[in-house]
């Protein structure tokens, strides 16, 4: 089994293309999964976070996930959720700014109707933003699409959600409770749903929903440096499972 | 000092910069809207004011924060503490109503009153402060004092006397909002 060494100092192991190509794909037109591409050369800087801050850990994992899955051979990221949030947000900022400016220029009694309109509009926009973020966007981190061509045009759509499982303790057994029962450190829970269909969604080829949980300590060392290769391999395995149509 | 953050920005792309800037802008926008909404609810141009002089001692001292409302249909009585602004002068004045006179108004919702005020700690009434007017009308009144908080207003006084403090605070807040991610 040949191992390729890449030119980056941080990555010590590499997944060679021959490994996954030897396993035959279950269906004849299953597109390439992320593990069958060579690992990304470390053109980006070392990711270093504060290990005590769970938010930073999760953001670092989410960013690495987005970089990994939006590589040229893999999915193209869909920015719809981000764009909606930006549009609604900036629109409400401009409405607020306009209302404030108007109230500043025009005398109080005269400005009241316009300021009322501006205030109601702002509240509606903020309310819509909140509803969108809570119900439609939820925990979604990455939405990607890919079109490949082998005999016919295949469209794939993948959606990933992630959240942090806080520190938890293993359930205490009634009879034995050892003082050495360790708490489980914060974990990164990743779930994905995958759909593969022919062009224009005419017929469904494969569908998969998988999820995995891993403690952050698997990807970050004590200094806060992120082992991107290990993370990418973990994500790649999960994505390939989803592409194979497993339901977990 | 900011090399880490700048590198992160370049790595994460333009949309991320827009998102972080939106964080900052929406904090300011929501503060502004809350202020305007409070003004509309209380029917007052400036529902929260800071006492700048000692003319209402021992009731209010310099640095006190005052909460005002200005209900359109309510009449003002002797003894009410009002905040008013004379056209041409920027500074609102907090004094007590000494006399009220009613004028027959033709069915307007706001009772047409003429007021004379005087500060508790002043020797004479406010005629000299009226800049030529003989009395105050309802349209000059910003509101009636409903409640107060002592000492809090010193933050505003400090920021007005030392504008660098204002810019430093705003700059610090902006930096924090641009760098932090939720």
In short:
The complex is a heterodimer of chains A (248) and B (182). Chain A is of the alpha+beta class and 248 residues long.
Please explain how this structure is put together.
The complex is a heterodimer of chains A (248) and B (182). Chain A has a domain at 84-133. Chain A has five helices and five strands; from the N terminus they run ααβααββββα. Chain A has helices at residues 17-22, 54-69, 80-105, 108-137, 228-243, and strands at residues 76-77, 140-150, 152-165, 187-198, 204-215. In chain A, strands 1-2-3-4-5 form a five-stranded antiparallel sheet. Chain B is an alpha+beta fold. Chain B folds into two domains: 3-42 and 156-179, no CATH class; 48-151, Umud Fragment, subunit A (Ribbon), CATH 2.10.109. Chain B has helices at 3-12, 14-42, 154-161, 163-179, and strands spanning 48-50, 65-69, 81-84, 93-102, 113-118, 136-137, 141-149. In chain B, helix 2 crosses helix 4 and helix 3 (154-161) packs across helix 4. The interface between A and B is medium-sized, with 30 and 22 residues.
């Amino acid at each position: 089994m040949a191992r390729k060494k890449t030119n980056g100092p941080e990555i010590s192991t590499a997944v060679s293309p021959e490994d996954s190509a030897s396993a035959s794909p279950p269906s004849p037109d299953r597109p390439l999964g992320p593990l069958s591409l060579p690992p990304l050369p470390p053109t980006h800087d070392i990711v270093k976070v504060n290990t005590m801050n769970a938010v930073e850990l999760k953001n670092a994992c989410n960013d690495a996930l987005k970089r990994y899955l939006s590589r040229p051979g893999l999915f193209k990221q869909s920015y719809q959720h981000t764009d909606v949030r930006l549009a609604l947000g900036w629109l409400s900022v401009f409405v607020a700014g306009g209302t404030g400016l108007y109230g500043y220029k025009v005398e109080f009694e005269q400005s009241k109707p316009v300021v009322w309109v501006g205030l109601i509009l702002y509240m509606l926009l903020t309310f819509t933003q909140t509803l969108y973020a809570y119900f439609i966007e939820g925990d979604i981190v990455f939405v990607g699409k890919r079109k490949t061509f082998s005999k016919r045009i295949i469209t794939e759509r993948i959606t990933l959600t992630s959240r942090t499982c806080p520190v938890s303790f293993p359930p205490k057994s009634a009879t034995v409770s050892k003082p050495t029962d360790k708490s489980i450190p914060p974990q990164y829970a990743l779930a994905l749903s995958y759909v593969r269909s022919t062009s224009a969604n005419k017929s469904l080829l494969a569908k998969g929903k998988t999820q995995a949980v891993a403690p952050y300590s698997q990807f970050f060392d004590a200094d806060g440096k992120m082992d991107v290769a290990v993370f990418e391999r973990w994500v790649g395995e999960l994505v390939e499972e989803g592409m194979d149509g497993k339901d977990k | 000092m900011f090399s880490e953050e700048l590198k992160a920005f370049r790595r994460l792309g333009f949309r991320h910069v827009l998102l972080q800037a939106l964080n900052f802008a929406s904090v300011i926008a929501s503060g502004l809207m809350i202020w305007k909404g409070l003004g509309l609810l209380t029917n007052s141009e400036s529902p929260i004011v800071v006492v700048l002089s000692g003319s209402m001692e021992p009731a209010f001292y310099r640095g006190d924060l005052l909460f005002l409302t200005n209900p359109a249909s309510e009449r003002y009585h002797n003894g009410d503490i009002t905040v008013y602004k004379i056209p041409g002068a920027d500074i609102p004045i907090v004094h007590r109503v000494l006399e009220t006179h009613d004028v027959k108004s033709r069915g307007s919702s706001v009772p047409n009153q003429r007021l004379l005020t005087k500060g508790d700690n002043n020797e004479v009434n406010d005629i000299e402060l009226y800049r030529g007017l003989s009395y105050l009308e309802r349209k000059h009144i910003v509101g009636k004092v409903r409640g107060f908080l002592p000492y809090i207003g010193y933050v505003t006084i400090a920021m007005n006397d030392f504008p660098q403090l204002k810019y430093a605070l705003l700059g610090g807040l902006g930096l924090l909002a641009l760098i932090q991610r939720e």
